Amino acid sequence: MACSSGSGAKMSSPNVSTSTMAVTPGAVDQKTSPVLFEIYGEIWNVQARLGQGVSASVYRVSSGRASTAAVKEFQADTQGGDYGFLKERSVLESIQGHKKIVTLYGVFTNHNPFGVATRCLLLELLDVNVSDLLVRASNQGHSMWLIQHCARDVLEALSFLHREGYVHADLKPRNVLWSADDECFKLIDFGLSYREGHQDVKYIQTDGYRAPEAELQNSLAQAGLGGDSGCTTAVDLWSLGIVLLEMFSGTKLKEIVKSQEWKDNSFAIVDHIFSSNALVYPAIPVYHLRDLIKSMLHNDPKLRSTADVALVDPFFSIPFAPHIEDLVLLPTPVLRLLNVIDDSHLYNEDEYEDIVEDMKEECQKYGTVVSLLIPKENPGKGQVFVEYANAGDSKEAQRLLTGRTFDGKFVVATFYPLSAYKRGYLYQTVHYNLNKLYSGSPRS
To answer: Reaction catalysed (predicted)?
Structure first.
């Protein structure tokens, strides 16, 4: 990318490898994974295996039209029942249409070269999950903006799900994923879900996110004893409370939640976690978040907040702006380049127009550019905003531009909320630490 200023500076590749904060799924194991799926008469190539569980594997796939999606392939059921596939398909088909719940595109049967037929779901492809975000938190916790964003999105999904009569029954960080194109968190994995009052799953929820009543029911089922401990939609609120507490603290709390101390006085532990971070966060929002989490963690499910009540909590009335580290973690169709344009380049009209054209030419190498903006005044002065046709192009550009140098300076490439960009709401340039951005620590 040539700069039109008299300095003749050019963007160059980095001398050392730097992290782009992008999700890097494991490579496909050719011995155990399919290399392609035929879906509705079209060939989709497997790009990577995104996850593998006891009963199913998930793959990122692309078609000849460059479309991308996810395929959840269930292991062949030797009994011919296909229970896991049929159950998840049934739930997903019943709850489609909500923005905060993963979209089911269709279902199909895959016939592999060995003559084995497997049942598959074709799903919306999502991005980073909350579990990965926790790993990148480096035990320091996430910003209030990110916590609030995640909490609101999940609560809206739960509110819809619960109104439809369903319990998710396996809410955990790995089942909450970011959608780059919709700029929101979405719920996935409904394999343990059931209609409230008609539980057809013996063991629900994951250890560390399991409500007390679900713990009791699972223990009874394991002992071969009957009984219904009343696992209602309240179990989902308990799980969300733990997820939000982990996002605030930046640490996994499984061992703490299983301890006798937690069982004796969980609220005292919540208070201690919040007091330990008192200097990091502003006081009033912290108190509201603490009280919101406590409302979800009553041992008595009847005392727990519902999703609808939680959504009108005072915590959601406080406006937050994302930290620059948040914008590195969460992909969107808009890319923001920092540390590229000096003020001196902005006030010579010919020089400015040349810079804009050079930036467009460079950025179009990575995907279709819808618009490009370089503000001459604050807010956003000297920042380069590039709107791509989709988040896939934006992520590719972020991956390839991060760590390159321009006029001797490292380029910082973050994502930017499309909704804010469309409204013309541009954040002021903020202080950032390159080492922390590239190492995965989310706070400066």
So the answer is: L-threonyl-[protein] + ATP = O-phospho-L-threonyl-[protein] + ADP + H(+); L-seryl-[protein] + ATP = O-phospho-L-seryl-[protein] + ADP + H(+)
Q: Is 236 a residue of the active site?
A: no
| Per-residue confidence (pLDDT) for residue 77, from 0 to 100 | 67
Long-range contacts formed by 196-199: CB under 8 A, 24+ apart: 196/162, 196/165, 196/166, 196/167, 196/232, 196/233, 199/167, 199/228, 199/231
pLDDT tens-digit readout, 395-421: 999 999 888 877 677 888 999 999 889
Residue showing tokens 């009335």 = 317
3-17, 45-59, 297-311, 426-440: range with lowest mean pLDDT: 3-17
Residue 212 has pLDDT above 70, yes or no: yes
Catalytic residue among 29, 77, 127, 153: 153
Q: Among residues of the chain, what percentage have pLDDT more than 90?
A: 58
pTM of the entire predicted model: 0.85
Is position 153 annotated as part of the catalytic site?
A: yes
Q: pLDDT band at residue 121, thresholds of 50, 70 and 90?
A: very high
Beta carbons of 369 and 363 less than 8 angstroms apart: yes
Residue 31 among known ligand-binding residues: no
Catalytic residue among 127, 170, 236, 326: 170
> Burial code of 291-325, b = ≥16 C-beta within 10 A, e = fewer?
ebbbbbbbeebeebbbbeebeebebeeeeeebbbb
| Burial label, 340 (beta-carbon count in 10 A; 0-12, 13-18, 19+) | buried
**DSSP code of 137?**
T
Alpha-carbon distance of 352 to 185, in angstroms, equals 38
Q: Kindly list the structural domains of the chain, giving each domain's residue range(s) and its CATH number in brackets, ordered by start.
A: 11-21+331-439 (3.30.70.330), 36-123 (3.30.200.20), 130-317 (1.10.510.10)
